[in-house]
Design a protein that fits this description.
Elements (H helix, E strand, L loop, with lengths): L1 E9 L3 H19 L2 E6 L4 H7 L5 H9 L2 E6 L18 H12 L3 E7 L12 H4 L4 E7 L9 E6 L2 E6 L5 H16 L4 E6 L5 H14 L6 E6 H10 L6 E4 L1 H13 L8 E5 L5 E5 L16 H14 L3 H16 L2 E2 L15 E2 L2 H13 L1
Helix pairs in contact: 1-10, 1-12, 6-7, 8-9, 10-11, 11-12
Bound molecules: nicotinamide-adenine-dinucleotide.
C-alpha cells in the first residue's frame, strides 16, 4: 500500500527528531512492503519566518490531504525569540491551535509506559512498579472547562469569575468510542474517570460511556472518581490499561502519568479526529536549549510514528516492530544523554549516543 504522510518539522529540535522518525518509518515500511510519500508542511516559527504567519491556509490544505501528519515541535525560547514579540495570534503556538481546530482533533492519546531498563528514572518504589506499567490516557481535547463560556464581573467592588463546563452527549460519545477502539487493540480495559458524585457533566459522561460500553462486550469498563484516580496512579499504576477522561482531568492526569515514566524524551502522543486521520507528535517541546547539538532523544517521535502506523494506517505489526526495536536498543544499553543515569550512578554496560545514532540503532534492529 502507498500512504501519504504530512511532515511538520517545526522549530528547535523538531527537524532533528523528525528526521530520525522519518528514517525509522521508511525502514519499517521497506521491510513490510509499503510505500510512503512525504509532504513537508511549514508550521510554527519557521512558517512565521518564511510566510509571516505560523500556519498558512495552504499548509492546512496539505495536512488535510495527508493520511496522517507526523510532527516534531514548534516554538522558540519565549524569553529571547523575536516570535514572542508578536501578538498572541501570530506566535508559533497559534499555528498548532489552528491546525487542531481545522482538523477537528478531539481525542488526545498519551501512552505512559515504563521500560524496565529505565526503571531508575521512575520516582515510585520498586514494589509499586513491579514489572512496570503500560497505559494510555485518552483525553477529550475540544470541550469542557477550557472551551466553555467565561466571565468576570464586579458587583459592589467584589470581583467574581465564572468558567463553564459543558459537554454534549455527542462530544462524550465520540471520544468514548475512540477509547474503546484503543482498548480493543490493547488489554481490553477502559477506566472512565469523572467526578459524578458532584458534577452533572460527569453524570452525563458516565451514562454515555455506559451506553457505548454495550457495543464493546469484549472490553471491560469501570468508572473511577478523578481524585481516586490521581491517587491510584501513584499507588498502583499497573491496574490501568486505557483511562478515558474529559479535557481538564485529562490534562492533569496525563502529566501525572507521564512523570512517573521518567524522561520527556520518551513520551509520544496522538491527536485523532472522527476519521482515521491523526496528528502524531512527541509530548515535549522544541527544547531550544539543546537544538542543533545532536543530543535530543528522538524516541518519543519514533514512538509517535509507531502510533501513526497503528491508529491512522492500521498497521499494527509494523507499529510493534518499531516498539520492539526501541525496547531492544534500550536493552543493549544504548542511551541518549537525557536517559543516561547521572554521573556517579551505575553506568556499566551503557553507551551514550546522539540523536542520529539512536535512529540508526533502532533501524538496525528493525532490519534484523
Ligand atoms: P521543552 O519540552 O521544549 O523542554 C523542557 C526540557 O526538556 C528542556 O531541558 C529540554 O532540553 C528537555 N527536552 C525536551 N525534549 C527533549 C528530548 N527529545 N530529548 C532530550 N531532552 C528534551 O519545554 P520548554 O522549554 O518549556 O518549551 C520550549 C518551547 O517549546 C516553547 O516555545 C514552548 O512553547 C514549545 N512547546 C511546544 C510544544 C509542541 O510543539 N507541541 C509542546 C510544549 C512546548
Amino acid at each position: 500500500m502507498e500512504y501519504r504522510i504530512g511532515v511538520i518539522e517545526g522549530d528547535g529540535i523538531g527537524p532533528e527528531i523528525v528526521r530520525e522518525a522519518h528514517k525509522v518509518l521508511e525502514c519499517v515500511c521497506q521491510a513490510y512492503g509499503h510505500r510512503l510519500s512525504w509532504d513537508k508542511i511549514l508550521m510554527g516559527g519557521c512558517s512565521i519566518d518564511a510566510c509571516g504567519v505560523p500556519l498558512t491556509d495552504e499548509a492546512v490544505a496539505q495536512a488535510k490531504a495527508a493520511d496522517a501528519v507526523l510532527m516534531g515541535s514548534i516554538g522558540g525560547d519565549p524569553a529571547t525569540s523575536p516570535w514572542y514579540q508578536l501578538p498572541p495570534e501570530r506566535r508559533p503556538e497559534a499555528g498548532l491551535l489552528k491546525l487542531r481546530k481545522e482538523l477537528g482533533l478531539f481525542a488526545n492519546l498519551r501512552p505512559a509506559y515504563l521500560y524496565r531498563e529505565l526503571k531508575e528514572a521512575c520516582p515510585l518504589r520498586d514494589d509499586v512498579i513491579g514489572d512496570g506499567f503500560d497505559m494510555v490516557i485518552v483525553r477529550e481535547l475540544t470541550g469542557g472547562l477550557y472551551f466553555g463560556e467565561r466571565t468576570t464581573t464586579e458587583k459592589d467592588g467584589v470581583l467574581t469569575a465564572t468558567d463553564t463546563l459543558t459537554y454534549s452527549e455527542n462530544e462524550i460519545r465520540r471520544v468514548a468510542v475512540r477509547a474503546f477502539d484503543v482498548a480493543r487493540k490493547r488489554r481490553k480495559k477502559v477506566t472512565s474517570v469523572d467526578k459524578a458524585n458532584v458534577l452533572d457533566s460527569s453524570r452525563l459522561w458516565r451514562k454515555v460511556v455506559d451506553e457505548v460500553a454495550l457495543s464493546y462486550p469484549d472490553v471491560s469498563c469501570e468508572h473511577m472518581l478523578v481524585d481516586n484516580c490521581a491517587m491510584q496512579l501513584v499507588r498502583d499504576p499497573k491496574q490501568f490499561d486505557v483511562i478515558l477522561t474529559e479535557n481538564m482531568f485529562g490534562d492533569i492526569l496525563s502529566d501525572e502519568a507521564s512523570m512517573v515514566t521518567g524522561s520527556i524524551g520518551m513520551l509520544s502522543s496522538a491527536s485523532l479526529n472522527e476519521t482515521r486521520f491523526g496528528l502524531y507528535e512527541p509530548s515535549g517541546g522544541s527544547a531550544p536549549d539543546i537544538a542543533g547539538k545532536d543530543v535530543a532523544n528522538p524516541i518519543a517521535t519514533i514512538l509517535s510514528a509507531a502510533m501513526l502506523l497503528r491508529y491512522s494506517l492500521d498497521l499494527d505489526t509494523e507499529a510493534q516492530a518499531i516498539e520492539q526495536a526501541v525496547r531492544d536498543v534500550l536493552a543493549d544499553g544504548v542511551r541518549t544523554a537525557d536517559i543516561m543515569p547521572q554521573p556517579g550512578r551505575d553506568r556499566e554496560g551503557l553507551v551514550m549516543v546522539g540523536t542520529a545514532a539512536m535512529g540508526d540503532k533502532i533501524c538496525e534492529k528493525i532490519r534484523r
